[in-house]
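DM from R.C. (forwarded with permission)

"hey, sorry to bug you on a friday — could you get me a structure for this? deadline for the figure draft is monday and I only need the backbone to look sensible"
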Amino acid sequence: MRTRVKVGAVAAAIVVGIAAGCGGGDSSDDGGGGNDGELAGVDKTTELLAGVPQSGSTLGDPNATVEILEFGDMQCPFCAQASEELTPDLISEIVEPGTAKLTYVPIAFIQPLEDSERGAIAIEAAAEQDKAWEMTELLFANQSDEGTGWLTEDLVFQIAEAGGLDVEQFRADFESDEAAEAIFSNQTIATDNGVSSTPTYVIEGPGGTEVISGAQPVDAFQQAIAEVS
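My reply, with the result:
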């Protein structure tokens, strides 16, 4: 698609400063769900997000004074590990009590770049229906080996349907210039925040900004939140 090719060229230039890989912990080697059968993680994702306010790419109370920005690439195995091991704790211990809101910022730097872009654009398109986290969690639940071409358009639309999106509206948003331009904006935000690996968490509040690299224990986030509150 023309818009995605255009963004890919621009994104490649912007992310020169981002490591050509991801880091932050020991990744699981089970390969995830992949794209070779029934989707993994649908019931688990539904349960995880049930009753949690969601607006665009943000989970939690929109009036929370502290925001956690999570930067990730959908092909990154460490990001998938964080989705499995850390995200449920962030939601239950920080987001649901209203301590902070959690915003996902998809970026694209892992080759093949068009696959990472496809995942990032899918999240931005799902955000138009306040379903970004359904798309994010299900993509990670069905992740396969990095760089193997698993992140296909067919998988993206299968997830959109399983995640309860209006698929036709999702298709229109997925193919829009606005979704592609959002990825350009995300890359700029990542660069401005010094993001050099994924996952990276930027915690912003009235008292300043803290950065956590990798899937650290939830206690580290609580301490960072206290520092910026």
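R.C.: lifesaver. The beta strands are 54-55, 58-59, 67-72, 101-106, 200-205, 208-213.
me: no worries. The domain at 2-10+37-59+78-188 is CATH 3.40.30.10 (Glutaredoxin).
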